[in-house]
Amino acid sequence: MEILEQFLAKNGLVLAFLFMGVALFLANWFSKKVVFNKIPGVAIAIFAALVLAYFGGNKGVASYPAFTGLAILGGSMFRDFTIVSTAMGVHFSELRATGLAGVLSLLIGVTITFFIGGSIGYAMGYTDAVSFTTIGAGACTYIVGPITGAAIGASSELIAISIAAGVMKTVFVTIITPIVAKRMSLDNPTTAMIFGGMIGTTSGVAAGLAATDPKLVPYGAMTSTFYTGVGVLLCPSVFYLLVLAVLG
Amino acid sequence: MRIYGVAILAACYLIGQLVGLYLGYWLGIGGNVGGVGFGMLLLIFMNGRMKDSMPKVKDTKDGIYFWSAMYIPVVIAMAATLNVRAAVSGGWVAVLAGIIATSACYFFVPFISRMASAKTNQ
Questions:
Q1: Distance, CA of A145 to CA of A162 (rounded, Å)
Q2: Angle between helices A240-247 and A129-140 (to 10 degrees)
Q3: How many CA atoms lie within 13 A of A198 on its CB side?
Q4: With an 8 Å Cβ cutoff, is B23 touching chain A?
Q5: Do B32 and A87 touch (CB under 8 A)?
Q6: Closest CA to A53 of B90, B82, B94
Q7: Residue range A6-60, pLDDT digits in tens
Q8: Among A104, A112, A235, B85, which is most buried by a count of CB atoms within 10 Å?
Q9: Whole-structure pTM over 0.80, yes or no?
Q10: CA separation for the pair A83, A120 (Å, rounded)
Q11: CB interface of B with A, residues 60-99, below 8 Å
């Protein structure tokens, strides 16, 4: 038993790779067979991870020795490193082709989401500048939230709330998009691009558009890739300073 | 060599983080201001500089694509290691902030879309 424990502790990161592979396989299976692609596998996996973390301690499942590797894989270094790498899917030529409307939709989308999300937090008792900013950023996406929170020194509790808000958004977008698509004439590339820019969460947008009309997926996904970058650039800087100036 | 791509990504990440750290220091708010965003901008620029005619460019890019495929498991691992028990006390904040803020954006989509198509038709 002691040998096994030492073995698990020594090989934490490699174990984490195995866990993530198995977790995503199960989540994708569940997504396909049980909920018939209504909820993307990624969203299911994240929800399951949050549920499991609840049964851990203040470090989530990493409180157990066998899962300490997850804290390395999910730590800030790997997180930021992999997020930066997703910029490979983006080209300046695409940015130009999307046009002013796409850029505008990104700025409006991030701004509206941040301030409404933050205000809801404020109304529910999270009244300091760091909380307002972290919750508002989390309402943008589950990536903007933790990066913003970590940058301005938010607590683990706040960061968890911001991720939960972002995950909530992904699930909501996935489910609601095909239902309201007709009402907002989401049936052409231009609207799809603006939709992607306004909503942002790439997995939610891609899944929601796939359920609406698969032809629209690349258009929405293209603009939504920029959303996290814009959010990460604005939330911990300009928006945080604005909130700080108002709330003190 | 894929390691070239990984090294380019590493350079973009490190420079971006440093810029973010110094910006945070100069603005007097500490922490890291947009470091990831700056890293992404740098990588977009580097990606534009990598022409298909260059030798081994596909291998180099594959070194970066590997990591961009890894961001989903990293985000899941991050979610699994959070202090969720503490967050649940503020659970309704997450639900309401996520849904209401997003709903507001849905209302604006047709409005901006009309503006865009009106401009294209001119």
A1: 5
A2: 140
A3: 26
A4: yes
A5: no
A6: B82
A7: 888 889 999 999 999 999 999 999 989 998 877 778 878 877 887 888 888 778 8
A8: A235
A9: no
A10: 27
A11: 61, 64-65, 67-68, 70-99
